[in-house]
Design a protein that fits this description.
The chain is mainly alpha-helical and 126 residues long. It has five helices and two strands.
Length: 126
């Protein structure tokens, strides 16, 4: 049972930190707007769901293009996920595809840092 709680706590902390990262993206880049922390929490959840469900399908469907561009097309897919999430949510908006691309890059970098920090933190607790 403690392992399940441990995993749930880690997932909850990651969600909150990714929402904060989304607010950071909005602060750093004017092409991305997040209305509130609640909007950021919902947007982080939707982005996570899109990345878990839609992204793998898009990666498979665009595999030839991704191979031709040596993987650079994956940045376009990430931007599309960011753009789609902004289009379906109130309180989270992106001003065009270039803003989605830049916002998704900053958000992805924040996600990498968050994941590395959480792995280091939770590895010490074992």
């Amino acid at each position: 049972m403690p392992c399940i709680l441990h995993g749930m706590l880690k997932m909850l902390i990651r969600w909150v930190l990714l929402a904060a990262a989304l607010l950071l993206v909005a602060h750093l880049y004017p092409g991305v707007v997040v209305a509130s922390f609640t909007s950021a929490m919902i947007a982080a959840l939707v982005l996570g769901l899109f990345n878990a469900v839609l992204r793998p399908l898009l990666v498979i469907l665009t595999l030839p293009v991704t191979l031709l561009t040596l993987g650079l097309f994956l940045f376009v897919i990430n931007a599309l996920m960011f753009y789609f999430a902004a289009n379906v949510l109130d309180g989270f908006s992106v001003r065009g595809f270039v803003a989605a691309l830049i916002g998704s890059l900053i958000y992805s970098l924040c996600g990498l840092v968050i994941d590395a920090a959480l792995e280091a933190l939770f590895a010490r607790r074992r």
